[in-house]
Amino acid sequence: MIIKGGINICGVPLGVISLESYFPKPDGHIKHPASFDFPILYKTVQGATIDRLIRERDPELLKPFIEAAQELEREGVKAITGSCGFLALHQQALADAVNVPVFMSSLIQVPLVSRMLKADQKVGVVVANSEALTADHLSGVGIADEPMVVAGMQHQPQFAEVILRGETDDLDMDIFEQELTGVVAAMLEQNPDVGAIVLECTDLSHFAPKLQDRFGLPVYDLSSLTRMVVAGVDRQIA
Question: Which residue has the higher pLDDT, 202 or 6?
Fold first, then answer.
């Protein structure tokens, strides 16, 4: 039997382009590799902070993002994602730069989730900063006229301080859960026609099971998307 070579590391289906951040990544986070039952290879883009990507929309980040994707491909990964859903802005550029599937944002699931709902239902989307979300981010992942509502975490004190601004590296998970559930509860109260939730931010994925238990809705996030993609690029069962 001949095994095909040409890659540096074997048996790693997923590569992650990682922003530089030092707050905790609990289980469910894409940067918590023990959350997944397959190996992951990370490439951190030094100096690529959440603030530069989300608030500044720094165009200078695209070049190192592309270089990171190409390096991960050379190493041998079979698919590539990122550690921030706002990379949706660069979805097509990064997909064009390599020859493996690329999914830069959990938001890419919105059209799929929308098609699974009733015609009179909406997708409820929770993002890190709804004020920074633009039409370019949405169109970058194929979102067009899907019925959806968007709620942001930017006005939640701890989330903004730790994750958006990076002023401290410690998280109180009880406060974090209260902030997130408050945002989701308000979104659903104002929009009772929401039929499913999509979490843009991987920092929220830890709470996906609790959100489903509390609100009784399907919850999709980067973790659910990642497992689906890896199941396709690294088939282990029929």
Answer: 202
* Mean predicted confidence (pLDDT) in 93-120: 98
* Assigned fold of 106-221: Rossmann fold (3.40.50)
Sheet containing 219-220, strands listed edge to edge, beginning at the edge strand earlier in sequence: 148-152, 122-127, 194-199, 219-220
So what CATH class is 14-105+225-233? alpha beta
Helices (H), 8-59: 50-54
Question: Which ranges constitute the DSSP H helices of the chain?
Answer: 50-54, 62-75, 91-97, 110-115, 135-140, 157-159, 173-190, 208-215, 222-233
Show Cβ contacts of residue 48 under 8 Å, excluding neighbours closer than 6 positions: 19, 20, 61, 64, 65
Return the structure tokens found at 60: 């200078």
Q: Are 125 and 108 in contact (CB under 8 A)?
A: no
The pLDDT of residue 15:
98
* Paired sense of beta strands 148-152 and 219-220, if any: unpaired
Q: Is the dihedral of CA 216, 221, 226, 228 positive or negative?
A: positive
Name the residue with higher pLDDT: 238 or 100. Answer: 100
